[in-house]
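Re: [ENG-882] Designed sequences occasionally contain unexpected residues at chain ends

Forwarding the minimal case from QA. Structure tokens:
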């Protein structure tokens, strides 16, 4: 393995597709998804701090953790949600595989950088992790909205499931985003202008 191959390996995120079991009107890879999750995590942390005036994690740290939250999928691929969450044994095994993948990626870094990247590959901790998880689910819901807008009824059930999961999170900053920002994702370009 080449020394410091980590960054070259990360560039391969663009080859890992998402929503593999679903008919898509447009494809999405984990690099695109991670960018959107980073934008959303940053927004949620800012909403908590600036709009709701609540203490919380640093928005920039949330964005960084979100950029790397699915990096393990470079080595594992994107396991479809119906399989990943089918039962506790599969979930536990998948978490072990993800941890091993993250460790393998960390081993591709120069030793002096590993400690800084370890929490990012884990998606952050505490409040940062909760915000990244919320942004991740929000990104999935937005994908559903956009597919439905394109006339793809394949995403109806996923839209309902992701919306229910978002509502169940009971995060005030997420609720604020859904109330004030989510409807715009259903608009066309002329309506956005």
């Amino acid at each position: 393995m080449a020394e410091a191959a980590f960054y070259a390996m990360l560039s391969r995120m663009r080859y890992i597709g998402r929503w593999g079991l679903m008919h898509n009107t447009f494809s999405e890879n984990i690099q695109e998804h991670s960018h959107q999750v980073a934008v959303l995590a940053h927004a949620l942390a800012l909403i908590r701090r600036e709009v709701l005036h609540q203490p919380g994690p640093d928005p920039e740290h949330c964005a960084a953790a979100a950029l790397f939250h699915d990096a393990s999928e470079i080595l594992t691929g994107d396991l479809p949600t119906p399989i990943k969450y089918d039962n506790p044994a599969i979930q536990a095994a998948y978490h072990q595989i993800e941890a091993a993948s993250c460790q393998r990626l960390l081993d591709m870094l120069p030793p002096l950088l590993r400690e800084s990247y370890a929490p990012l590959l884990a998606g952050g901790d505490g409040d940062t992790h909760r915000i990244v998880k919320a942004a991740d689910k929000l990104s999935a819901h937005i994908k559903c909205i956009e597919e439905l807008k394109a006339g793809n009824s394949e995403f109806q059930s996923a839209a309902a499931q992701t919306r229910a999961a978002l509502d169940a999170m009971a995060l005030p900053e997420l609720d604020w985003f859904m109330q004030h920002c989510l409807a715009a994702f259903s608009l066309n370009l002329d309506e956005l202008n």
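QA comment: On inspection the terminal residues look reasonable. The chain has one domain: 6-192. Proposing we downgrade this to a documentation issue.
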